[in-house]
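Bench log, entry 3. Co-assembly request; chain sequences pasted below exactly as received.
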Amino acid sequence: MSVDRDQVLRSAAAQLTRKGSSTMDEVAKASGISRATLHRHFAGRDALIRALEELGIQECEAALNAARLDEGTAGDALRRLVKEIEPAAGLLAFLVTENQLFEGDAQHEGWTRLDIRITDLFRRGQLNGEFRIDLSPVWLREALYGLVGSAAWAVLEGRVAAKDFSYLIAELLIGGAQRRVES
Amino acid sequence: MSVDRDQVLRSAAAQLTRKGSSTMDEVAKASGISRATLHRHFAGRDALIRALEELGIQECEAALNAARLDEGTAGDALRRLVKEIEPAAGLLAFLVTENQLFEGDAQHEGWTRLDIRITDLFRRGQLNGEFRIDLSPVWLREALYGLVGSAAWAVLEGRVAAKDFSYLIAELLIGGAQRRVES
DNA sequence: CCTCGATGAGACAAATTTGTCTCATAAGGG
DNA sequence: CCCTTATGAGACAAATTTGTCTCATCGAGG
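Structure output for the full assembly:
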């Protein structure tokens, strides 16, 4: 009987990813509930977006933790990270393009924490000689976000297979498109 | 006295990139004109978006032509393409996230043409042995879009230098983050 | 069987946005 | 200098969206 708040948030994210300007009514229908119930759980549109942001941050932090970024090579850690972040990719794809989040006030502190942890991973890869140093850790991080978003969208559109998600992102980000002569 | 339609479109794109839900009034102010004048040039919000789409397609096609994708190595062609597409990156970043464009009716034919040409470039690189074959041309194309969007946004936010734009995208896409042992 | 709590459907006003209109003004060409 | 044209400011109604409310219904648990 009771609505599963988490499930509502996921449906809302999916709907808003498809159409960022969805009305509360469209979001409610996409979640299979009525607009009244949606309002009972989230005070308004802003509150809904904020809740999505919180959920996204939580899932990302969980993914970062599960990926154990400090262990093994930076490349392997990155591969683990991409794999762990896959379930949250749809939500992420929406949040990344939701630039309204930093409107007026500052960016959510949670994103800053995540940014730092990911940047540190790339920095570690540079310091131990795995990664090239002419691409800054900040750019590599932004590129990772972009690729995750692109891949999530491509999967939604059926342009790439969902099972290839993490492979495509990690391999492109780490190895690039260029064919290696040999190892 | 007369409004520069092209300049209005560029300002509109910049404003809409910052905030996708900008009202016509916000767009007008961002363009330095009144809402009445904005309406005189574009019948409505939809017409404005469509005009932005047309402009984006035109600029992309011009970039594709200027990059001479069939000449030289695929890698060099890709580098030229990224360089040529830089002026349109802001507009592109908006259009890519504007998923409302394919709402209901089919995707604009212009995008399909562009998609094909870019995909063909990656395919050419694979056929001549430059690019690895485990990353499909379609994915490489989507990844390019994602990286262009990420880079455009990162430049806007001041996270990366504008002068590095094309280098960062092309080098990451082609070579990846991994450091090469030697050439 | 009854009660309580959550939900769906819908009404409603308020707020926002849009599209259209008028009028005054400034700019530019003849 | 005058006349044409485009613009800015603002009024206005229509449409859309939002937030709140009421009421009936459904289902679980006692």
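Chain A touches chain B through 47 residues (CB under 8 Å). The domain at 56-175 of chain A is CATH 1.10.357.10 (Tetracycline Repressor; domain 2).
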